[in-house]
Amino acid sequence: MVEAPETAEGWYALHDFRSVDWDAWRDAPERDREAAVESAEQFQNHRERLAGSDDGDSAVFTVTGNKADLLFVHFRPTLDELDQIQRSFEATEFAGYTEREYSYVSVTEVSGYVSDEYFTDPEAVDEGLRRYIEGKLTPEIPDDTYVSFYPMSKRRDPEYNWYDLDFDERADLMAGHGDVGREYAGKIKQVIASSVGLDDWEWGVTLFSDDPTHLKDIVYEMRFDEASSKYGEFGSFYVGRRFPPEDFHAYMAGDAVPVPDEEKATGEHHGHHNDRAHGESGHDHGEGGHHGNDRAHGESGHDHGGDSEGSEDGDGEASLREELADLDVYAGKPHGEDVYAVGLYSEADLDELEEEVAGLAESFDHYDTHEGTDVYAPVDGDGPAAVVSLWETQSAADTAAGFLADLPDVTSRVADPDDGWGTMGMFYTVKPDYREDFVEKFDAVGDALAGQDGHDETRLLQDTDDENAFFIDSRWQSKADAMAFFRSDAFRDTVQWGRDVLADRPRHVFLA
């Protein structure tokens, strides 16, 4: 018998496609239509508000074409919750004006094709890859996004039978398939959910993107991949656009959704005016990648609250940030940096690593939450290079971590919790004439740090594309130890000295 890869399951998914009985809608009294729309808005707002980061997600989309009018998507930890959601919708006044055209039930899944080690030795799995896998099992839905959904199965014909192939053959084909997907990092976020034993096809695929042409392009390009061209079978495709629940009035009135912000502010759209702000669903999605978010994905998975010294992380940390601000050093926002960082160390050949990272960065640049991905090499030439990727949202960073984990010869992540508490990073850009002075100053500060309580190690690395841009990874036993140094006269003197040599304001990003 051919070996079946192991699988791990996450959230259950319900795709509920509805058509509107427009004749009945036009014939209904205004008060009945108003009550129906209000019931739809309340139903969906309730679903989205209940969907916290640990409890699932929900969204409603338009559907373009004649297959349906609306798509309700729900992700929940249990199948029972989806069943209850389905029945709750039927109890609304709005449901009386709709018919279900199609539905799909599935469960998010990762398999041994993604990481065999995740099943055989989970403790050894790189943290970045672990966050990527967890993001696939517990996905979030981007706020303002287009959607494409389709079911698919693997072919079981006499000539091309996917299930007759051995594991290595299937793994190689899936790796090639994944290479195509990686080209769309930052453009597409995808949710792959298994429906074997749950629905008529084997998987339900949901793609999200800010640009609908990306939805076409990725499916088109993958059609030429052998895993699809020989072994893929596909059902109907559904495409649409997400809109917030408060725009149901505009949708039913035939107006544009999402309602443009300027119309929402003035109430100019023809639908019912609503005082709620756009996105009042209670979610702060970011998005994601191949498919964030934003799991708070730069939701880097770090607990900014720290450990037992938590009292220091509240008013004490806010006070420290104010002190740094007085020195014109940006230290992020309390308990929520302006960026989310992913960092990995690699012992690969530097030229090879730069080439790989350049390809990823080019793909990442298509996503507007990407701030930059760079390679940093040790100034003293000793030790591995670092790859640091900065994102505006946690979910985007978490998605990026999955791609970065595939870089060659990765040895560890920056600020690994096993190494204590790390401060990542300290980012400095130096005026060209002062580069050597900056390196000498770092050496002097490094000597001082060697005797600092709670300090483990501090590394200075420079951007391989800009010798005047530096990244410092400073590792401490606790946040309190690091804060004590930041409050010290030595650090204050260093910052004052840096006013003459730095090209712009230094940025510090705290990670636990």
From TrEMBL:
Keywords: Heme, Iron, Metal-binding. Gene3D superfamilies: 3.30.70.100, Apc35880, domain 1 (3.30.70.1030). Transmembrane segments: none annotated. Residues 260-317 are annotated as: Disordered. Residues 422-510 form the ABM domain. SUPFAM superfamilies: Dimeric alpha+beta barrel (SSF54909). Coiled coil: none annotated. GO terms for molecular function: heme binding; metal ion binding; oxidoreductase activity. Residues 261-307 have a biased composition (Basic and acidic residues). InterPro entries: ABM_dom, ChdC/CLD, Dimeric_a/b-barrel. Pfam families: ABM, Chlor_dismutase. Signal peptide: none annotated. PANTHER family: COPROHEME DECARBOXYLASE (PTHR36843:SF1), HEME-DEPENDENT PEROXIDASE YWFI-RELATED (PTHR36843). NCBIfam families: PRK09565.1, PRK12276.1. This is ABM domain-containing protein. It comes from Halocalculus aciditolerans.
